[in-house]
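In response to a reviewer's request, we include the raw inputs and outputs for one of the modeled complexes. The two entities were modeled together in a single run.
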Amino acid sequence: GEDVEQSLFLSVREGDSSVINCTYTDSSSTYLYWYKQEPGAGLQLLTYIFSNMDMKQDQRLTVLLNKKDKHLSLRIADTQTGDSAIYFCADISGGSYIPTFGRGTSLIVHP
Amino acid sequence: KAGVTQTPRYLIKTRGQQVTLSCSPISGHRSVSWYQQTPGQGLQFLFEYFSETQRNKGNFPGRFSGRQFSNSRSEMNVSTLELGDSALYLCASSMGGGEGEAFFGQGTRLTVV
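The model returned the following structure tokens for the whole complex.
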């Protein structure tokens, strides 16, 4: 990947849906990932999507990929306080072994 | 299946000292990558080892080095520590085939005083 951009903060109310957005520049990205980092912990892989897919759903998580606009989003349904964390978007391009990470979006869930 | 293990979890060192961090990858994984995470710079890639060879390298000075052993365990060394080296150092392991699905350890929190 070349460059991955994310907004730094998102605040939502418990029970609402959260949508975290990410844009990337590498048109040859093959895989795109969402990681979650809780305080004091490493990154946990949440889900990933192949570049030939438009959408992937996994329980409360929905990933949408718009290849034309190089835009990736993660929707969390029924957001809970336990979802409060930093969410990282990452991509990897063909022939590379190293994902490029965004700066992370800090999700704050309040009652 | 055990996850990625990093030791130690916390470390305090003095400027000018050197430090060695250790990472044990998931069994069967041959690739180990190291990242430095700071509030100001985010997650920055240091280097990646695959089958005991450094395969990729980020833009860090030569004070940062690493190695990988035949059992895929990896160590990272930082010499002549500077205050700016204070960070969370994360290790990630993967199969190494380019699919990029990496699994991270808890990290080592290094504080340089």
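As requested, we also summarize the result in words. Chain B touches chain A through 24 residues (CB under 8 Å). Chain B has no helices and eleven strands.
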